[in-house]
Specification:
9 helices; alpha/beta; 38% helix; 3-stranded antiparallel β-sheet; binds fructose -6-phosphate
Length: 263
């Protein structure tokens, strides 16, 4: 795992967007796995800016979102379809037929989940999977106790997740959909690279558990320790409970120095 600690959320977002931009410049038909939630918003803003200012071209890109609530229409103001449209898809040039988001209905979900997995394989697999992390260590909507080998399926959301998402649904957890379709932990682990993002003190314990704790289904993000190419981009507040914070900073500073020498 590469741990990249940035002073602020704004820098975290820029660094993550630069990783995606550099990959896109090398591979114009990049396959991106995308997350929703508050954490990646700044990353999407930075990518939109690169598109507008530098002409960063997304016309060859294919995307697969991690998850979607079940039980609200796709055009609901707080569906993840709407989120992606608002924060990214309406602002850059990814062809509509290249964008994939899990469906928001349980009807026929078994076949849907199989087709979703098959579409990822048909696209050549995910090059970079963007991930946020829940306070309980979830990635996607893989709540604690999710199988570390799980595939795309319906999951019931944990109470802490309902509480975290309640502000989007009028402040009451009763209004938050109780289930979601999510890529599985095993699906996520097949991405070439995972880009785990976290900001703020409320994520510090989850990050410490994921990065330095035991690998356990109790903290689904901890399985990323087994992934050969995970980059964890976090701000100081989210890094505040890490034991080896000085070492991670030294490793990253040395990497930047090496890159400078190569130029
Ligand atoms: C969203 C997703 C979730 C979020 C996580 C953190 O697509 O998969 O795992 O990444 O709940 O959410 P925020 O960023 O809102 O704290």
């Amino acid at each position: 795992m590469e741990i990249v600690i940035q002073p602020t959320y704004a820098r975290l977002a820029e660094v993550a967007a630069e990783i995606i931009r550099d990959a896109l410049l090398k591979k114009p038909n990049l396959v991106l796995g995308l997350a929703t939630g508050s954490t990646p918003i700044g990353v999407y803003e930075a990518l939109v800016e690169m598109h507008k200012t530098d002409g960063l071209d997304f016309s060859g890109v294919t995307t697969f979102n991690l998850d979607e609530y079940v039980g609200i229409p796709s055009d609901h103001p707080y569906s993840y379809h709407t989120f992606m449209e608002t924060h990214l898809f309406s602002l850059i040039n990814i062809p509509p037929e290249n964008r994939h988001i899990p469906q928001s209905t349980a009807v026929g979900h078994v076949g849907f989940c199989e087709r979703y997995e098959a579409a990822i394989v048909a696209a050549g697999g995910i090059d970079i999977q963007v991930l946020g992390i829940g306070k309980d260590g979830h990635i996607g909507f893989n709540e604690p106790s999710s199988s570390l080998g799980s595939r795309t399926r319906i999951k019931t959301l944990a109470r802490s997740t309902l509480e975290a998402n309640a502000p989007h649904f009028g402040g009451t957890i009763d209004a938050v959909p109780k289930m979601a379709i999510t890529m599985g932990v095993g699906t996520i682990m097949e991405a070439n690279q995972c880009l785990l993002l976290a900001s703020g003190e409320s994520k510090a314990a989850a990050i410490a558990n994921a990065v330095e704790g035991p690998i356990t289904a109790e903290v689904p993000a901890s399985v990323l320790q087994m992934h050969p190419q995970t980059v964890v981009v976090i701000d100081e507040a989210a890094a505040s409970q890490l034991k080896r914070i000085d070492y991670y900073k030294e490793v990253y500073a040395n990497k930047l120095e090496l890159l400078d020498q190569e130029i």
